[in-house]
Write a structure and sequence with these properties.
Elements: H1 2-6, H2 10-28, E1 42-44, E2 55-57, E3 70-73, H3 119-124, H4 127-169, E4 174-185, E5 192-205, E6 210-215, E7 221-222, H5 224-227, H6 237-248, H7 255-269, E8 273-275, E9 289-301, H8 306-320, H9 325-330, H10 352-359, H11 374-385, E10 388-392, H12 399-412, E11 417-421, H13 430-433, H14 436-439, E12 442-444, H15 451-466, H16 469-505, E13 508-510, E14 513-515, H17 517-531, H18 547-555, H19 562-570, H20 576-579, H21 583-607, E15 610-612, E16 617-620, E17 623-626, H22 633-645, H23 650-659, H24 663-690, E18 695-696, H25 703-718, H26 721-725, E19 737-738, H27 746-772, H28 781-784, H29 789-804, H30 806-820, H31 837-882, H32 888-898, H33 916-950, H34 952-959, H35 974-993, H36 998-1030, H37 1033-1049, H38 1057-1071, E20 1077-1079, H39 1082-1088, E21 1096-1102, H40 1112-1115, E22 1118-1125, H41 1139-1149, H42 1167-1171, E23 1178-1179, E24 1182-1183, H43 1188-1198, E25 1204-1205, E26 1218-1222, H44 1236-1250, E27 1260-1264, H45 1269-1281, H46 1284-1289, E28 1293-1296, H47 1297-1300, E29 1305-1311, H48 1332-1340, E30 1344-1352, H49 1356-1359, H50 1365-1374, ...
Parallel strand pairs: 8-9, 10-22, 10-23, 11-20, 11-21, 12-20, 21-22, 24-25, 26-30, 27-28, 27-29, 29-30, 33-34, 43-47
Antiparallel strand pairs: 1-9, 2-3, 3-6, 4-5, 4-9, 5-6, 5-7, 13-14, 15-16, 16-17, 18-19, 31-32, 32-33, 35-36, 36-38, 37-38, 39-40, 40-42, 41-42, 44-46, 45-46, 48-50, 49-50
Helix pairs in contact: 2-8, 2-41, 6-7, 10-16, 10-52, 12-36, 16-36, 16-52, 17-35, 18-33, 19-33, 21-31, 21-33, 22-30, 22-31, 23-29, 23-31, 24-27, 24-29, 25-27, 32-33, 33-34, 37-38, 43-48, 44-45, 44-56, 57-58, 65-66, 65-67, 66-67, 68-69, 68-70, 69-70
C-alpha cells in the first residue's frame, strides 16, 4: 500500500495536499450563529435615540441614501449649576452627578429643632428656600437632560473609536459590516443572525470631533456559512440572489428594498419559509426558515474564505491536471537536468567596477529602477533560473523597497505579478514605493472602494489612446542605449576612483619606512628649504638608493689619473687576468717544458732514434714508429703487457722457458699447482675442524697400520662392559698423542685419523714439488716450513701460473697489440728460432725492460711537450680572440708565451731564472694593476649608469664633476635628501593618478542611471501591454466599453445609473486582465482570482513567516514564487483547531502519500518554514528602520550580528534611543496578563512625550510582551486621557508582537507585564517552543524607529535567571554597549593628525562639523552640518586602506551610504599637504554646491540629548505615582531577607543633611524611610516633615508652603539641602543639569556655583550651591571631608566598599534602599573591575545614563549579589574586620595584556611608532599603575617585538612618556608611574606576585610596600621585630625566599612608614602600627 502511495503522481499528491488544507480551513472556521454573541460589538441602529443631537442614524432608503450610516459627535460635558448659598447646607452630597436625585440633610445648627421631621419637610417649610430650590432645580433638570444625552453619545463615540483603533491594529482579521434581516432555522435553534451584510468603514474627523460609519464600494453579500447550517435549504439559489443584489445595488440598510429581497430569498430557499415584518415576531415552528427585520452595525472577525478558494483549486487541479513548478518541488517532484544559477563570487578576483555595480544593484539585464543592493540583484537573477526564491528579511531590512524594486524589473520584462501577504500592513505603502512610471500599472486592492483598479484601468485606456507601439519601441531603444552608455561610464569612473584611492593609499617602501602619499606630502612640505636643492632633477619612484654606491661614486672622482683611466678603459670587456697564466703557473709550465725536453733528448740519444713528422713519429732503425698517445687505450694496453711481461724472478723465467717445451710440460706444472692447492684446502679444513687439538705421531711412519690401530682404539673407547674387555686394541702406540696426552674419546681418535690422512697427502705433494721446483733453485717442500709447508708452497702458485701463460698471454698479446697499432714487433723482438728456450725468455725480457719501455717513455714525454705547446697556442689564441684592442703590457706578455720552443729541437732549455720568468712576472703585475684600475673605472661607469636609471640628472652631474658633485665625499644629508626626492615622486604619482574627480561623477551617473532605468522600465512595461492588447481584441473591447459605461454613469443620480454601475462592474472583471500588477492580502487574492483562468508569472508572498500552511493556496496562481519572510519572527498561532484533529486530518490526507516532510504541514508552521524544505534563503542585511542601538538587541539575539544598521545614530532626534523605565510598584494581576502600574506608566510616558516639541510629529506604538490584555488596558487608559484627534494624529496603536509584525512606529513603549511575587526567581523564559518567545521578543524590540521604552517591574538580577529573555532585554536596555567595553575607551575622536588639520581648516572657515560620526554600522571621518543637509568628508591616505580588498570594501561602504542619501567629498592627504589652500578651496566649492554655507550653528537642543529625557521623566513623575504601598512593602519584606534585615535596623536620629524640600513629608525623608519597616516609615514621616519645614523656614520667608518658590522644585524631582552659609542651599546634580539650574536661578533671582564633590551635607555628591543675587558667598567655605571625596560612604562594614574606598573609586550604595550598589564610571574602577568581580563574587553592568542616585552620571551597578548584603572578600585569603574596614587591602595585579605586533612600519623612533607607543603606554599606565618606569618601558618595547632595550630605545620611551599624562614618585633610585587620578599618598592597597605576574622587589612602589607592611602588622595584634615584619611582608608580597635586596627594600619601606607616622618604633627594638 505504501509503495503505491509513493508512486502517486504529482497531481494526486497536490489534490491530497489541497484537500487536507481545505478541511483544515473548515475546522478552523468559527460561525457566529446568534446576534447576541457579538455583545458590545453590535450596534442596533433602530434602538439608537432619535432625539439626541450628537447621534445621527441615516438608513440607505431610496429617499435618504447620502451621507454616513451613523455619525456621532463628541459631546462636551458641562458641570452642574451651583445651588444658592442659602440652600447649600440643606443639600445632601451627590448633587453634582446627573445620575442622582436631589437629596436633603439637616444643617448642624438645625439638628436640635428637627423633632423627628424629615429634612425635606423642614426645608420646604420656608417658602423662600422652596422658591430657590425650584429655580435651581429647574436649571439642574435641564443640565441632567443634557448630560444624559451627552453620556449616551459619548459612550457610543467611545465604542466606535475603540472599534476603529482595533481595526487599525488588525485590519485583515477584523471588519465592520452593516447587517440586516435576521433569519432563524428550524434545524438549529441557535441561529438568529442577519443574513445580509455589506462592508463599511469608520472615519474620524478629528478637527470636528465626529466619528462616522460610512459605506464603501462593495457588494451586499448573503451569509452562506450561516445558511449552510441547514440541510433542507436550496443553496443553489444563493448565487442567483447575490447576482440580483449586485445588479440592483441593494443595500442592507435600505429597509424597503432589503425586505423585498429577504422575502424573495427565503421563498427560494425553502417552500416552508416565513417572512415577518416585525422584529419581535415569534418563531413559526412549522417553517424551516423565517426572516424578520433587524438592522445593525457589527464589529466582527472577518470571515475566512480560504476553504472555498482551496475548493476551487482542487477542482481546477482535477480539471486541468496542472500543478505549478514551485509546488512540484514541495511535493517531491524535481525537474532533472536543470541547473541553478551560479552567482558570481564577489571576491577580490572580480573587477572593481563589477563589484561596486553589484553592490549598488546595477546590471546590464536586470532593471532595478530604485536604489538597490546586491541581495536584490541576486533575487532577480535567481528567479530567472529557479522556480522559487526564498528571501529572509529581518526587521527593517527594506522588504517593501525590495519588492517594489523587483516589481519594476518584472513589469519591464512584461511579466504579470501578484504581491500578496498574510496581512495588509506590509502592503499598505508598496504601491507608493513603486517608480512613478509604473505606479499606474499596479492595483492595490487594500482599499475596499476599488478606486485603484478603476484608476489603473483608466490609465491603461488613456495610454492606449495617447501612445503607439512604434513610439514606445523607439523610446525603449533610445533609453537602452543611454543606459548602456551610463553603465559603461560608471564602470570607467569606478575604475578611475579605485585607481585614485589605490594611489592615495598605496604604501611605498622607503628604507625601513612605509610611506603613503599623505605621509610624503607632509614630509615635502616640512623639508622643502632644507633638502630641496641637494639632489638635482627628478628621481624614479620607489627606487632604493644604495648609499655605499653613492659614496663609492664620489670617491671614484680621484681614484685614478686620466692616463690610467684611458689605459683601463681600453681593457674593458676582457677578463685579462684569466687569459694570461699567472707568473707561478708560467714558471711551472716552463719548468715542465725544460724537464720533458731534456728527457726526450736523452732517450733519443740513448737509442739513436730520430723524431720525424714534427714530433708525431719516431724513426727506430729503418722503421718509423708512431708516437702513441699516453692517454689512449693502445698505450695503456701495451704498457700493461710490458709491465706483466717482465719476469722478475729467475725461477719464473725457468718455468717460462720450460713452458715453451709444449703442453705436456705445462700439464705437469698444472698438476703440481692443483696438488698444492688441494693440500692447502685439506690442511685448512683440518685446522678449522680440530683446532685446538695438536696430534703427534711420534716415530710411527707406518701410516696404514697406525690407521688400523687408531680405528680399533676408537671402537674400544665406544664400548662398555664385557665387550670393552674383549677388545683387541686397548691403547695407542707410543708417541701417538693428542695435545700431549693419550686420546680419551672417539673424537680424539677421529682427529688422529684425519691427521694421518693429511700427513700422507703432504708426502705425495712433497714428491711432486721436489721433482719440479726443487730443480730450478727453489727450496724443497719440507724446507718451506716445518709445520705447514703447503701454505708457503701455495704462495708460489700464482707466479707459476703466470710463467706458464707468459708466452701466450703476454708476449703473443704484446706482439698483436704492437702490430695492430702500426708498430711491427720485430723492431724490438728479433730473436732467432735456433736459440734455446732460456735464451728466448732472456732476450724477450731484455727487450721489454729496455727498448720497448723507453719507447713508451718517449711517447709520454712527447705528448707532454705537445700539450705544453698546445697550451701556449691556446693562450695566444684566446688572447687574440678576446682582444680587439690591447694595451702594451698585454702585447709583451703575449710575446713571452710565443717564446716557448717548438717540439723537435732538444738538448737546450729556456732560461727560467733571471730572464724570461722575471720579465713575465713584472709585466703580469703591471697588467694586473691596470685591470684593477679598469675595475674601478668600470665600477664607476656602471654605478653612474645605475644611478642614471633612477636619477639621471644627478648621475650626469657626478659624471661631469659639476660643483659639489665633483668632490670625493658625499654631500651632507644625502639620505634625507633622497627621501625628500622620493616623497616628491610619490606626491607626483598620486597627483597624476588623481587628475579627475570620479566620485562626483559616479554620484551623478548613479542618479542618471536610476532615472533612465525607471523610465526604461516604464516604457518597456507599457510596450508589453500595448502588444498584448493588440493581440487580444476581446480585452481591448472590454476596456473601451468600460470607459464609455463609466462616462454614462455621470454623477450616479440618473434613472439608469444603477444598471450602468452593474455593467461597469461586469466589464471591470474582464478589464482586470489588462492590469499587470496586483497588490492584495492572501485572503482577498484567493477570493478575487479564479485559479482556472488566472496565472501570474510571479507571485511575491511577503511576511510569509506569519502565513500558515493554507497560504500555499496562493502558490497555485503562480508560475514562479518569491517567498519573503523571516523564520526568526512571529510564526502563525494555532487557533481554532485542536492538534489531535489536525493530526487526524493529516493522517487521512497526506501522510504516507509520498509528500516530503508531511509532518511540517501543521498549524504552527509557517509558509516560510515549509518553503525552507527545498530552498536556501537570500538574506537581506541592510537595516533602514531603527537607529543602531534599537536594532542591536534583535541583531544579537536572532541574527548573529549580521544585520548592518544604516541609519544615523541620532537621525531620529530622540536621545537616548533606549530608555529603560522600571516601575517599582508594578505587580501583575494574578493570572491575568495585565499590570496596572505598568499600564499607568506607559500612559504617563506617552503623555509626557507629547508635551515635548521633539515628539510633535512622532508616531507611537504600545506593545505588550505578554498577551493582548495589557495592550487593551493601555489603549483604554489612553482613550480616557487623550483627545481622539491627538490619538489619531500620532497613529497610536496598542497590540502584541504578532499584531505589530510588519508595522513600525517612531516611538515604541514595551510593557513587560510580569512581576515576581515569590521568594525565588521566575521560571526561566527561554526561546520557547519553536522559538516562540524568542521570535516575539525579536519582533517587539525591532518596531521602533527612533526611540524604544521598556516599562518593567522586575529586578533582572534578583527576579530573573541568567539566559531569561526578559533579563536579556532589560540588561540590554540598561547597557546596550556592554560588548563595547572590550574595546579601548580612550581612543581620540580624531583618528589622525591629517583629520585634525582638516577640521582646523573647516573651523577657520566657519563650518560646523562632527568627527567620527557613526552612521549605522559605519563611521564617517567628518560630517559637515547645515540646517538642510549634512555632507560626509573622508580623509584618504592617513589610515591603512592599502590592499585591494580594503579599498574595494571602503568604496562599497561609500556606495551603500550614497544609496541611502549621503553625499561625499574626499580629501587626499597628498593633495592637502601639497597645496592646503587650493584643496580647501575645492572643498568649500563642493560644499557650496551641496547648499552648505559656513556660519550654521548647531542648536543646543540637538547637543544636549540627555536634557530631553530629563524633561520627559520630569513630566512622567508629575503624573505617575510609583510609590510602593504598605502591602507591597510587607510583601517585599517577606520575600527578600536582606530588605527585612534592613527594615529591622534601629531608628537613627534625624540628621541635618536630610533633604529640605519635597512634595510631602514622605518625599522629604525618602532616604531614611527605606531603611526602616513600613510602620516606622509612617511614624517618622510626620516628624521629619515638620523638621524639614522648620529648616526651610530658616532659608526663606514663610508666607505659605504653596507660595514658597522652593516647593515648586518638587515637581522637578530635585533634592535640596541646607548649606552652611545663611540664605544658601544645595541642589544635587551634575553638569548635565546646568540649563535646568540656570532656569531655577532665574526664577528665584539667585546665582549658583558648581562643585563636583559637593559638600558634607551632600555626602560628597555633585551639587550646585544657590544663593541670592548680590550676596557674597564663597563655595570653598562649604565644609567637605578631605578624606571622603566619593559620593558614597561605607557605613556597612562591607569589604567590597573598603576596597573601593581604598582605591578612591566613587560609589553610591543604595542596596539598603531596595536599590543597587552604583560605582561611578572611573578609570581605576575599569582597571580593577574584573578582579573585584572575581574576588567578591559579584557582577557589574554598565549604564551610560546611570541613575538618579548617581545624578545620571555614567556608572556601573552591581547586577548580582544579594541587595543589602555585606560582601566578604576572598583576595589573598585576607580577612578584614568590618569595624576596621579602612585598613590596607590586598588586590590582584591586573595586566594590560597588550597584543604584540612586530615593528612593521618604521624605526622605533619614527613618528608613527611613537604615536603607537604613546597609546600603548597610556593603556598600560591606566591599568597597571603604579608601575616601575623601566618595567613600563620594557612592556612597551616588548609589545613591538623588540627583545632588548638599548640607550636609544629608552631615550625614545622617555620622550614618549613626556607626552603622556601621568604622576611620578621615586624610591630607592627608581621611578614609579601613576595615573593623574591616583593619589599616591593615599594608596591603601598592594598587589602581590601571583605566578602570572611576577615583579622584582624594586618594581614595587614605596606606597605599595608600606600598604603591605601595614597589612601584615594589622592582621595580628601586638608588636613586631623588624625581622618579623620583613618575613611577613615578603611572604605577603609573594617572595618565597628573602634575598638581600628584598630585605633591604622592605626595611626601607618600614623606615618610610615610620617617618610618616604610620608605625612606631618602641624600646626593645620592636614596632607597633599606628595606622
Amino acid at each position: 500500500m505504501g509503495s503505491d502511495f509513493n508512486n502517486l503522481s504529482v497531481v494526486d499528491k497536490a489534490e491530497a495536499l489541497f484537500g487536507y488544507l481545505e478541511e483544515f480551513s473548515k475546522i478552523r472556521m468559527k460561525v457566529v450563529r446568534n446576534i447576541g454573541e457579538y455583545a458590545s460589538d453590535c450596534i442596533d441602529l433602530e434602538s439608537l435615540p432619535t432625539n439626541n443631537g450628537w447621534i445621527e442614524v441615516r438608513f440607505c432608503d431610496s429617499a435618504n441614501n447620502d451621507g454616513p450610516v451613523l455619525s456621532v459627535a463628541k459631546p462636551e460635558f458641562k458641570t452642574c449649576p451651583q445651588p444658592p448659598d442659602e440652600i447649600v447646607p440643606w443639600i445632601a452630597n451627590g448633587w453634582e452627578s446627573y445620575k442622582n436625585q436631589i437629596g436633603f440633610k439637616f444643617p448642624p445648627e438645625e439638628l436640635a429643632e428637627a423633632n423627628g421631621e424629615a429634612p425635606q419637610d423642614l426645608f420646604m417649610s420656608d417658602p423662600a428656600r422652596a422658591q430657590l430650590l425650584e429655580e435651581w432645580g429647574g436649571e439642574r433638570d435641564k443640565w441632567v437632560t443634557y448630560q444624559t444625552k451627552a453620556s449616551e453619545a459619548s459612550g457610543l463615540y467611545e465604542r466606535l473609536f475603540k472599534m476603529k483603533e482595533k481595526l487599525k491594529s488588525d485590519p485583515d482579521k477584523l471588519e465592520v459590516v452593516a447587517a440586516s434581516m435576521n433569519v432563524r432555522l428550524s434545524e438549529d435553534k441557535r441561529v438568529d443572525h442577519p443574513v445580509f451584510t455589506r462592508n463599511m468603514k469608520i472615519e474620524l474627523d478629528a478637527e470636528k470631533g465626529i466619528i462616522s460609519v460610512e459605506d464603501v464600494d462593495s457588494s451586499t453579500l448573503i451569509q452562506k456559512d450561516l445558511l449552510s447550517q441547514s440541510q433542507n435549504l436550496t443553496m443553489s439559489k444563493i448565487s442567483e440572489a447575490e447576482q440580483r443584489l449586485d445588479e440592483e445595488e441593494v443595500h442592507p440598510l435600505d429597509r424597503d428594498a432589503i425586505a423585498r429581497e429577504a422575502k424573495l430569498l427565503v421563498n427560494q430557499l425553502s417552500p416552508k419559509s416565513r417572512y415577518f415584518d416585525r422584529a419581535d415576531a415569534a418563531r413559526d415552528h412549522e417553517a424551516e426558515i423565517d426572516v424578520r427585520p433587524g438592522f445593525y452595525l457589527i464589529f466582527r472577525q472577518r470571515p475566512d474564505g480560504t476553504a472555498g478558494a482551496i475548493d476551487r483549486i482542487v477542482k481546477t487541479i482535477d480539471e486541468t491536471q496542472r500543478v505549478p513548478a514551485f509546488l512540484n518541488g514541495l511535493l517531491g517532484e524535481f525537474a532533472h537536468g536543470e541547473t541553478s544559477l551560479v552567482l558570481e563570487d564577489f571576491s577580490d578576483k572580480s573587477t572593481v567596477s563589477r563589484r561596486l555595480a553589484e553592490a549598488n544593484g546595477e546590471d546590464d539585464e536586470i532593471l532595478l529602477a530604485k536604489p538597490a543592493n546586491r541581495a536584490q540583484l541576486e533575487i532577480a537573477k535567481r528567479i530567472e533560473q529557479d522556480d522559487a526564491v526564498l528571501v529572509q528579511g529581518p526587521p527593517g531590512t527594506g522588504k517593501t523597497h525590495t519588492i517594489a524594486n523587483l516589481m519594476g524589473s518584472f513589469l519591464a520584462q512584461g511579466k504579470r505579478v501578484l504581491v500578496t501577504s498574510y496581512t495588509s500592513k506590509a502592503l499598505t505603502v508598496l504601491a507608493d514605493k513603486m517608480p512613478p512610471e509604473l505606479r499606474s500599472l499596479c492595483v492595490s486592492s487594500l482599499a475596499s472602494d476599488g478606486k485603484d483598479a478603476r484608476d489603473s484601468v483608466e490609465a491603461i485606456v488613456s495610454h492606449l489612446g495617447e501612445h503607439s507601439i512604434s513610439e514606445l519601441n523607439e523610446s525603449v531603444q533610445e533609453l537602452s542605449c543611454q543606459r548602456e552608455e551610463i553603465l559603461a561610464d560608471l564602470a570607467k569612473a569606478r575604475k578611475s576612483a579605485f585607481v585614485e584611492r589605490e594611489a592615495e593609499n598605496k604604501q611605498f617602501e622607503l628604507g625601513n619606512e612605509t610611506l603613503t602619499p599623505h605621509d610624503a606630502a607632509q614630509f615635502v612640505a616640512k623639508n622643502k628649504e632644507e633638502l630641496g636643492d641637494i639632489i638635482p632633477g627628478q628621481v624614479e619612484l620607489s627606487a632604493r638608493l644604495d648609499i655605499p654606491l653613492v659614496e663609492e661614486l664620489y670617491q671614484s672622482n680621484g681614484i685614478a689619473s686620466a692616463e690610467d683611466e684611458a689605459e683601463a678603459t681600453r681593457l674593458q670587456g676582457v677578463d685579462w687576468m684569466t687569459l694570461f697564466p699567472k707568473p707561478d703557473v708560467y714558471a711551472q709550465e716552463l719548468e715542465k717544458y725544460n724537464q720533458a725536453s731534456s728527457l726526450a733528448g736523452e732517450l733519443i740519444r740513448r737509442h739513436g732514434w730520430e723524431l720525424c713528422d714534427d714530433g708525431g713519429a719516431v724513426e727506430v732503425g729503418s722503421a718509423v714508429l708512431p708516437v702513441l698517445d699516453d692517454g689512449s687505450e693502445a698505450f695503456g694496453t701495451v704498457g700493461n703487457l710490458v709491465k706483466h711481461g717482465v719476469l722478475n724472478e729467475s725461477w719464473q723465467r725457468e718455468v717460462a722457458a720450460r713452458s715453451l717445451r709444449g703442453e705436456g710440460e705445462i700439464t705437469i706444472w698444472h698438476r703440481l699447482c692443483d696438488g698444492v692447492q688441494s693440500l692447502e684446502q685439506q690442511a685448512s679444513s683440518y685446522r678449522s675442524k680440530w683446532f685446538p687439538r695438536q696430534v703427534a705421531l711420534g716415530g710411527n711412519n707406518d701410516y696404514q697400520q697406525l690407521r688400523t690401530i687408531v680405528s680399533g682404539y676408537k671402537e674400544y673407547l665406544g664400548k662398555t662392559g664385557l665387550r670393552k674387555l674383549l677388545s683387541s686394541v686397548k691403547s695407542l702406540p707410543e708417541g701417538v698423542m693428542i695435545n700431549g696426552t693419550q686420546a680419551a674419546t672417539p673424537e680424539d681418535c677421529d682427529a688422529i685419523l684425519d691427521y694421518i690422512e693429511l700427513v700422507e697427502e703432504r708426502r705425495v705433494c712433497a714428491t711432486q714439488w721436489d721433482a719440479l721446483m726443487g730443480t730450478i733453485g727453489v727450496s724443497c717442500f719440507a724446507e718451506l716450513d716445518s709445520s705447514e709447508p703447503e701454505h708457503v708452497a701455495f704462495r708460489y702458485i700464482e707466479g707459476i701460473k703466470a710463467a706458464l701463460t707468459w708466452k701466450t698471454e703476454c708476449v703473443d698479446a704484446l706482439f698483436d697489440a704492437l702490430d695492430s697499432n702500426g708498430i711491427p714487433h720485430e723492431v724490438f723482438f728479433g730473436c732467432s728460432t735456433m736459440i734455446s728456450e732460456k735464451e728466448v725468455v732472456a732476450k724477450t725480457s731484455q727487450a721489454l725492460e729496455t727498448d720497448l719501455a723507453d719507447y713508451l717513455k718517449l711517447c709520454a714525454v712527447l705528448k707532454r711537450l705537445g700539450a705544453i705547446k698546445t697550451w701556449s697556442e691556446d693562450v695566444l689564441k684566446k688572447i687574440e680572440d678576446a682582444s680587439a684592442k690591447r694595451c702594451e703590457t698585454a702585447v709583451v706578455l703575449s710575446d713571452y708565451i710565443v717564446q716557448f720552443r717548438p717540439v723537435g729541437d732538444f738538448g737546450g732549455a729556456v732560461d727560467s731564472e733571471l730572464g724570461l720568468v722575471q720579465t713575465y712576472r713584472d709585466q703580469y703585475n703591471r697588467l694586473q694593476w691596470l685591470c684593477e684600475i679598469r675595475a674601478a673605472v668600470k665600477c664607476r661607469h656602471e654605478q653612474l649608469n645605475q644611478l642614471s636609471r633612477i636619477a639621471p640628472e644627478w648621475a650626469q652631474a657626478i659624471r661631469e664633476r659639476e660643483g659639489a658633485h665633483g668632490a670625493t665625499s658625499v654631500p651632507q644629508g644625502i639620505e634625507q635628501a633622497w627621501k625628500y626626492k622620493q616623497c616628491q615622486a610619490i606626491v607626483e604619482y598620486a597627483n597624476s593618478a588623481n587628475s579627475s574627480n570620479p566620485h562626483k561623477e559616479i554620484s551623478e551617473l548613479g542618479k542618471r542611471y536610476r532615472n533612465i532605468t525607471a523610465k526604461l522600465a516604464g516604457k518597456m512595461a507599457w510596450l508589453k501591454i500595448h502588444r498584448d492588447l493588440e493581440s487580444n481584441t476581446e480585452l481591448t473591447v472590454a476596456l473601451n466599453g468600460w470607459k464609455q459605461t463609466v462616462a454614462r454613469i455621470g454623477k450616479g443620480t440618473g434613472k439608469n445609473a444603477s444598471r450602468h454601475r452593474s455593467e461597469a462592474r461586469a466589464l471591470m472583471a474582464k478589464c482586470q486582465g489588462a492590469v499587470p500588477a496586483w497588490i492584495m492580502p492572501i485572503g482577498q487574492a484567493l477570493d478575487s482570482f479564479n485559479p482556472a483562468n488566472n496565472l501570474f508569472d510571479i507571485v511575491i508572498i511577503d511576511e510569509a513567516s506569519q502565513a500558515d500552511m493554507t497560504a500555499l493556496a496562493i502558490a497555485y496562481l503562480a508560475k514562479k514564487v518569491i517567498v519573503v519572510g523571516d523564520d526568526k519572527q512571529v510564526s502563525p498561532l494555532s487557533v481554532g483547531a485542536k492538534e489531535s484533529t489536525v493530526d487526524g486530518l493529516a493522517a487521512s490526507y497526506i501522510e504516507g502519500k509520498g509528500i516530503p516532510n508531511a509532518h511540517l504541514y501543521r498549524a504552527r508552521y509557517s509558509l516560510y518554514e515549509i518553503a525552507q524544505q527545498g530552498f536556501s534563503p537570500i538574506m537581506l542585511t541592510e537595516h533602514f528602520r531603527c537607529v543602531p542601538d534599537i536594532i542591536g538587541f534583535s541583531n544579537g539575539l536572532s541574527y548573529g550580528g549580521k544585520i548592518k544598521a544604516l541609519r544615523d545614530a541620532d537621525a531620529g532626534g530622540l536621545m537616548p534611543a533606549l530608555v529603560p523605565f522600571r516601575v517599582e510598584s508594578g505587580m501583575r494581576s494574578g493570572k491575568a496578563k495585565i499590570n496596572q502600574q505598568e499600564a499607568k506608566a506607559a500612559v504617563a510616558i506617552i503623555r509626557a512625550c507629547l508635551e515635548q516639541p521633539e515628539y510633535e510629529n512622532k508616531t507611537f506604538g504600545v506593545l505588550s510582551l505578554l498577551g493582548e490584555e495589557q495592550s487593551d488596558l493601555i489603549r483604554n487608559e489612553l482613550l480616557k486621557e487623550m483627545d481622539p484627534a491627538e490619538f489619531e494624529k500620532h497613529e497610536i496603536i496598542c497590540g502584541n508582537a504578532a499584531g505589530f509584525q510588519g508595522d513600525e512606529r517612531d516611538v515604541m513603549i514595551l510593557s513587560m507585564v510580569d512581576s515576581n511575587d515569590s521568594e525565588v526567581p521566575l521560571r526561566l523564559m527561554g526561546a520557547g517552543p519553536d522559538d516562540a518567545y524568542k521570535k516575539r521578543y525579536n519582533v517587539a524590540a525591532s518596531r521602533a524607529k527612533d526611540q524604544m521604552w521598556l516599562v518593567y517591574s522586575l529586578d533582572p538580577a534578583r527576579d530573573l535567571k541568567n539566559g531569561d529573555l526578559r533579563r536579556q532585554l532589560i540588561e540590554y536596555m540598561l547597557d546596550p554597549h556592554s560588548l563595547d567595553a572590550q574595546i579601548e575607551e580612550a581612543q581620540e575622536k580624531a583618528e589622525s593628525d591629517f583629520e585634525l588639520q582638516v577640521c582646523t581648516e573647516l573651523s577657520k572657515r566657519g563650518y560646523q562639523y562632527e568627527q567620527q560620526k557613526e552612521v549605522g554600522s559605519y563611521r564617517i571621518d567628518i560630517v559637515v552640518q547645515s540646517d538642510r543637509r549634512n555632507v560626509a568628508i573622508e580623509c584618504d591616505g592617513d589610515r591603512w586602506h592599502s590592499t585591494e580588498g580594503q579599498i574595494i570594501a571602503d568604496m562599497e561602504r561609500q556606495t551603500i551610504l550614497e544609496r541611502v542619501g549621503w553625499d561625499f567629498i574626499r580629501i587626499r592627504g597628498s593633495e592637502f599637504y601639497r597645496d592646503r589652500d587650493a584643496t580647501m578651496d575645492r572643498v568649500v566649492a563642493e560644499l557650496a554646491s551641496y547648499g552648505i554655507e559656513p556660519g550654521y550653528q548647531v542648536s543646543e537642543g540637538a547637543c544636549e540629548t540627555s536634557e530631553l529625557l530629563e524633561r520627559v521623566l520630569d513630566a512622567v513623575r508629575d503624573s505617575f505615582n510609583d510609590e510602593v504601598n504598605e502591602d507591597t512593602i510587607k510583601f517585599t519584606t517577606a520575600r527578600d531577607s536582606s530588605i527585612a534585615a534592613a527594615l529591622q535596623e534601629e531608628d537613627q536620629p534625624y540628621e541635618s543633611n536630610a533633604p529640605l524640600v519635597g512634595g510631602n513629608a514622605k518625599d522629604v525623608c525618602t532616604d531614611k524611610k527605606k531603611r526602616t519597616g513600613a510602620n516606622e516609615q509612617r511614624e517618622r514621616a510626620s516628624e521629619q516633615g515638620r523638621q524639614a519645614i522648620e529648616q526651610l523656614e530658616q532659608v526663606t520667608v514663610d508666607e505659605s508652603y504653596e507660595g514658597n518658590p522652593l516647593f515648586a522644585l518638587k515637581k522637578r524631582g530635585y533634592q535640596i539641602y541646607k548649606a552652611g552659609q545663611p540664605g544658601t542651599f544645595w541642589i544635587l546634580g551634575d553638569l548635565s543639569a546646568r540649563s535646568s539650574i540656570k532656569d531655577i536661578c532665574a526664577t528665584l533671582d539667585y546665582d549658583c556655583d558648581y562643585r563636583s564633590e559637593g559638600a558634607d551635607v551632600t555626602e560628597g555628591r555633585s551639587g550646585w550651591l544657590l544663593y541670592p543675587k548680590g550676596t557674597r558667598v564663597n563655595i570653598s567655605l562649604e565644609s567637605r571631608s578631605k578624606t571622603d571625596n566619593v559620593p558614597g560612604m561605607n557605613n556597612r562594614g562591607d569589604a567590597l566598599l573598603v576596597t573601593l574606598e581604598s582605591l578612591h573609586i566613587p560609589f553610591v550604595d543604595m542596596r539598603d534602599k531596595q536599590g543597587s550598589l552604583w560605582v561611578i564610571d572611573h578609570p581605576v574602577f575599569r582597571q580593577y573591575r574584573d578582579t573585584l568581580e572575581r574576588n567578591y563574587h559579584v557582577k557589574f553592568r554598565y549604564s551610560e545614563q546611570g541613575s538618579k542616585s548617581t545624578s545620571f552620571q555614567s556608572a556601573w551597578y552591581m547586577a548580582t549579589g544579594e541587595p543589602g548584603h555585606t560582601v566578604t572578600p576572598t583576595i589573598c585569603s585576607a580577612r578584614h574586620d568590618s569595624a576596621t574596614g579602612g585598613g590596607p587591602i590586598c588586590v590582584s595585579y591586573v595586566s594590560a595584556n597588550i597584543v604584540t605586533s612586530s615593528l612593521s612600519y618604521g624605526a622605533y623612533d619614527s613618528d608613527s611608532c611613537m604615536r603607537a607607543a604613546a597609546d600603548r603606554m597610556r593603556r598600560i599606565i591606566s591599568i597597571e599603575a603604579p608601575i616601575e618606569k623601566q618595567r613600563l618601558f620594557n612592556d612597551v618595547r616588548a609589545s613591538f617585538g623588540i627583545e632588548r632595550s638599548g640607550v636609544n630605545i629608552n631615550a625614545t620611551n622617555q620622550s614618549v612618556l613626556e607626552h603622556v599624562e601621568h604622576a611620578m614618585t621615586k624610591f630607592n633610585g627608581h621611578e614609579y608611574i601613576w595615573t593623574n587620578a591616583q593619589e599616591p599618598g593615599k594608596c591603601r592597597f598592594f598587589r602581590p606576585n601571583d605566578g602570572a605576574t611576577n615583579r622584582s622587589i624594586e618594581q614595587f612602589a614605596k606606597e605599595e610596600l608600606i600598604a603591605a607592611v601595614l597589612y601584615c602588622m594589622g592582621s595580628k595584634g601586638g608588636t613586631f621585630t623588624i625581622d618579623d615584619i620583613v618575613s611577613r611582608t615578603a611572604k605577603a608580597l609573594g617572595f618565597s625566599r628573602k634575598g638581600s635586596t628584598v630585605v633591604k627594600t622592605i626595611k626601607a619601606a618600614v623606615s618610610a612608614a615610620e617617618s610618616a607616622g604610620l608605625i612606631r618604633w618602641l624600646d626593645g627594638g620592636r614596632y607597633r602600627s599606628e595606622y
